[in-house]
TrEMBL record:
Residues 2-38 form the Ig-like domain. Gene3D superfamilies: Immunoglobulins. SUPFAM superfamilies: Immunoglobulin. It comes from Corythaixoides concolor. Residues 87-110 are annotated as: Disordered. Residues 96-105 have a biased composition (Basic and acidic residues). This is NPHN protein.
């Protein structure tokens, strides 16, 4: 599913860690690894821990993401609360052909996205990617 929608993973407010599970099978067998911001996760990154195992024809991988509050604070600084007063925060100098506030208002779903991780399954015959989108859980979800 090369163009499949990302799998939403709801992160409750106050959560410090999140676990993502990916599983694949293939002949010949597959290897799994994770990507973040377009790069493979390296084992020396203390924030991310991976564990991989085989169950019959299936290969599984568990990614533990620590310090989710880092992504949450980045998100909060990027997007203001819904009830912010635009008249107080209007920029003094603004480009005529670009409104920096427009990006925040066009996609309210993006306003809840903490980060996106990609599980990559590979074997000698090809590669398949599946995106997981960490999303801030709303009060109604």
């Amino acid at each position: 599913e090369p163009e499949a929608e990302p799998v939403p993973v709801l992160v409750p407010d106050g959560a410090e860690t999140v676990q993502l599970r990916c599983r694949a099978q293939g002949v010949p067998g597959v290897w799994l690894h994770w990507e973040y911001q377009g790069h493979a996760l390296s084992p020396d990154q203390p924030r991310f821990q991976t564990h991989q195992w085989r169950e019959g024809p299936w290969t599984s991988s568990l990614l533990t993401v620590a310090n989710v509050t880092l992504d949450r604070s980045r998100l909060r600084s990027r997007f203001r609360p819904l009830n912010w007063d635009r008249s107080q925060s209007r920029r003094r100098h603004q480009y005529r052909n670009w409104d920096g506030d427009r990006d925040r208002d066009e996609d309210p779903e993006q306003n809840r996205t903490l980060s996106t991780f990609v599980c990559v399954a590979q074997n000698p015959l090809g590669t398949v990617r599946r995106r997981f989108q960490l999303r801030l859980a709303g009060t109604g979800t």
